[in-house]
Amino acid sequence: MNIHEYQGKQILKSFGVSVQEGLVADTVEQAVEAARKMKEDYNSDWVVVKAQIHAGGRGKGGGVKLAKNLDEVKEKAGAIIGMQLITPQTGPEGKKVNKVLIAQDVYYPGASETKEFYMSVLLDRAKGRNIIMYSTEGGMDIEEVAEKTPELIFKEEIDPKVGLQGFQARKIAFNLGLSGNAFKEMVKFVGALYKAYESTDSSMFEINPVLKTSDDKILAVDAKVNLDENGLFRHPDYAAMRDTTEEDPMEVEASASNLNYVKLDGNVGCMVNGAGLAMATMDIIKLAGGEPANFLDVGGTANAQTVKAAFNIILKDPNVKAILINIFGGIVRCDRVAQGVIDAYKELGNVPVPIICRLQGTNAVEAKKLIDESGLQVYSAIALKEAADLVSKVLA
Ligand code: GDP
Ligand code: MN
């Protein structure tokens, strides 16, 4: 589960990671009020207005703006709140901004130069270990750094038996070219960051940039946090940070019906039980000349309710020209699934696209008979090849 930058920073702060401070605002008035409070606390007129959306690259898209006084806060927050922000990560349609973070300006001049670093903590699945990835080339596109100058990206592997060791944090600070107080601050920062990552059951923390200020503080200026959904039951306070307005509405509806749904761009909707069979079904659709419109796993119990909920979600996608139902009846009997399909179909009334229903397993023959005698616009099949041929036929 993704959360906003301001929420990620709240979590980081609670584990002792120093962050660029800020206050969140939903309206221009709140934004101005927040800037006033920031001035009281930090004695500076300058703040940064930062769009809060679940996507990075906001700076490039015009979603991060420096404001030097309250009038500018009003003007910039006014422009950003409600805008459709397009960044390299949002897709061409962009994302609507509902909130801004009014953050302290931390790029102030001082005794030494400011420096931007990159740092992330994530699970390296090949190694089965957490790693800290970091680079002197922060602030910009880390993907570009990885492609053009991979030697500038360092990785530190954490042994799960002993956790992050002091020498590893010092090595990171050293490789980032730090000395003196900034070195000490970085060692503390890395330790607290790793602790936060581990304790929250996260799958990724990405801080880009980590800033060395002109007075040698080390701060998280940005925070991209991905919490592992499987661990959320242990953290109800983090689960409450979910912002469904940032998610695909169809995926939100599907998860409410306990369906595993991922929207794709094709023309053939599919409804399958089991993730492996769902993947195979998507391959079959491609071989038949179609493109899958979604991934949808209805899970172990494919009854009339789940079938209906799945129909409803698939049919909301205007690109869908046909639906392929592919259910294997192992524990669930095919004739009951067939009855579920028929009931759901009748309840929905007019289903505007042809349906191919392939049921295999226990009582497959009875199921085919039920479908064939239903008088509905549903093509039945038992073999997968037959189903694929029917997909080609209805698309032609
Ligand atoms: P992203 O573009 O979505 O990754 O958002 P970031 O939070 O990383 O901010 C983008 C850029 O805005 C940073 O790389 C900085 O260059 C700039 N920025 C962020 N905070 C400040 C600040 O306090 N002062 C100034 N002058 N620039 C800032
Ligand atoms: Mn960033």
Automatic annotation (TrEMBL):
<dbReference type="GO" id="GO:0005524">
    <property type="term" value="F:ATP binding"/>
</dbReference>
<feature type="binding site">
    <location>
        <position position="222"/>
    </location>
    <ligand>
        <name>Mg(2+)</name>
    </ligand>
</feature>
<comment type="pathway">
    <text>Carbohydrate metabolism; tricarboxylic acid cycle; succinate from succinyl-CoA (ligase route): step 1/1.</text>
</comment>
<protein>
    <recommendedName>
        <fullName>Succinate--CoA ligase [ADP-forming] subunit beta</fullName>
        <ecNumber>6.2.1.5</ecNumber>
    </recommendedName>
</protein>
<dbReference type="GO" id="GO:0006104">
    <property type="term" value="P:succinyl-CoA metabolic process"/>
</dbReference>
<feature type="binding site">
    <location>
        <position position="273"/>
    </location>
    <ligand>
        <name>substrate</name>
    </ligand>
</feature>
<dbReference type="GO" id="GO:0005829">
    <property type="term" value="C:cytosol"/>
</dbReference>
<feature type="binding site">
    <location>
        <position position="116"/>
    </location>
    <ligand>
        <name>ATP</name>
    </ligand>
</feature>
<comment type="similarity">
    <text>Belongs to the succinate/malate CoA ligase beta subunit family.</text>
</comment>
<dbReference type="GO" id="GO:0042709">
    <property type="term" value="C:succinate-CoA ligase complex"/>
</dbReference>
<keyword id="KW-0547">Nucleotide-binding</keyword>
<keyword id="KW-0479">Metal-binding</keyword>
<feature type="binding site">
    <location>
        <begin position="57"/>
        <end position="59"/>
    </location>
    <ligand>
        <name>ATP</name>
    </ligand>
</feature>
<dbReference type="InterPro" id="IPR005809">
    <property type="entry name" value="Succ_CoA_ligase-like_bsu"/>
</dbReference>
<dbReference type="InterPro" id="IPR005811">
    <property type="entry name" value="SUCC_ACL_C"/>
</dbReference>
<feature type="binding site">
    <location>
        <position position="50"/>
    </location>
    <ligand>
        <name>ATP</name>
    </ligand>
</feature>
<dbReference type="GO" id="GO:0004775">
    <property type="term" value="F:succinate-CoA ligase (ADP-forming) activity"/>
</dbReference>
<keyword id="KW-0816">Tricarboxylic acid cycle</keyword>
<dbReference type="Pfam" id="PF08442">
    <property type="entry name" value="ATP-grasp_2"/>
</dbReference>
<feature type="domain" description="ATP-grasp fold succinyl-CoA synthetase-type">
    <location>
        <begin position="2"/>
        <end position="210"/>
    </location>
</feature>
<keyword id="KW-0436">Ligase</keyword>
<keyword id="KW-0067">ATP-binding</keyword>
<feature type="binding site">
    <location>
        <begin position="330"/>
        <end position="332"/>
    </location>
    <ligand>
        <name>substrate</name>
    </ligand>
</feature>
<comment type="subunit">
    <text>Heterotetramer of two alpha and two beta subunits.</text>
</comment>
<dbReference type="InterPro" id="IPR013815">
    <property type="entry name" value="ATP_grasp_subdomain_1"/>
</dbReference>
<dbReference type="InterPro" id="IPR017866">
    <property type="entry name" value="Succ-CoA_synthase_bsu_CS"/>
</dbReference>
<feature type="binding site">
    <location>
        <position position="106"/>
    </location>
    <ligand>
        <name>ATP</name>
    </ligand>
</feature>
<comment type="function">
    <text>Succinyl-CoA synthetase functions in the citric acid cycle (TCA), coupling the hydrolysis of succinyl-CoA to the synthesis of either ATP or GTP and thus represents the only step of substrate-level phosphorylation in the TCA. The beta subunit provides nucleotide specificity of the enzyme and binds the substrate succinate, while the binding sites for coenzyme A and phosphate are found in the alpha subunit.</text>
</comment>
<keyword id="KW-0460">Magnesium</keyword>
<dbReference type="InterPro" id="IPR016102">
    <property type="entry name" value="Succinyl-CoA_synth-like"/>
</dbReference>
<feature type="binding site">
    <location>
        <position position="208"/>
    </location>
    <ligand>
        <name>Mg(2+)</name>
    </ligand>
</feature>
<dbReference type="GO" id="GO:0000287">
    <property type="term" value="F:magnesium ion binding"/>
</dbReference>
<dbReference type="GO" id="GO:0006099">
    <property type="term" value="P:tricarboxylic acid cycle"/>
</dbReference>
<dbReference type="InterPro" id="IPR013650">
    <property type="entry name" value="ATP-grasp_succ-CoA_synth-type"/>
</dbReference>
<dbReference type="Pfam" id="PF00549">
    <property type="entry name" value="Ligase_CoA"/>
</dbReference>
<feature type="domain" description="ATP-citrate synthase/succinyl-CoA ligase C-terminal">
    <location>
        <begin position="271"/>
        <end position="389"/>
    </location>
</feature>
<dbReference type="GO" id="GO:0004776">
    <property type="term" value="F:succinate-CoA ligase (GDP-forming) activity"/>
</dbReference>
